[in-house]
TrEMBL record:
It comes from Sphingobacterium deserti. This is NADH-quinone oxidoreductase subunit K. Its main location: membrane. HAMAP family: NDH1_NuoK. Belongs to the complex I subunit 4L family. The gene is nuoK. NDH-1 is composed of 14 different subunits. Subunits NuoA, H, J, K, L, M, N constitute the membrane sector of the complex.
Length: 109
């Protein structure tokens, strides 16, 4: 573990923060601009991965494992979100033959 910590400290923490901020901003842009449900789900996953990388970087930087524990829980949450989201996408596609968000307004009663 000591070797990994000294190896990671070769890259400054600011680089991780900037990189994760860019990835998170790309994810937010994808959620706000795109209309395809699958791409929106991928953008949400991109945001979760940016947070995971930043938590792992802070965890190693501080020498505390609590950030890595949070990463584990976020990954479990992301897996559950993907399972439920894909089930919803499949049901919407069966009803509307489209994965466009605008087609969801047709499902109202």
């Amino acid at each position: 573990m000591e070797n990994f910590v000294t190896q990671m400290q070769g890259v400054p923490l600011n680089h991780y923060i900037i990189f994760c901020s860019i990835i998170f901003a790309i994810g937010v842009t994808g959620v706000l601009i795109r209309r395809n449900v699958i791409i929106i789900m991928m953008s949400i996953e991109l945001m979760l991965n940016a947070v995971n990388l930043l938590l792992a970087a802070f965890s190693v930087y501080r020498g505390d494992a609590s950030g890595q524990v949070f990463v584990f829980f976020i990954m479990a949450l992301a897996a559950a979100e993907v399972a439920v989201g894909l089930a919803i996408i499949i049901m919407v596609y069966r009803n509307t033959k489209s994965v466009d968000i605008e087609s969801l307004s047709k499902l109202r009663w």
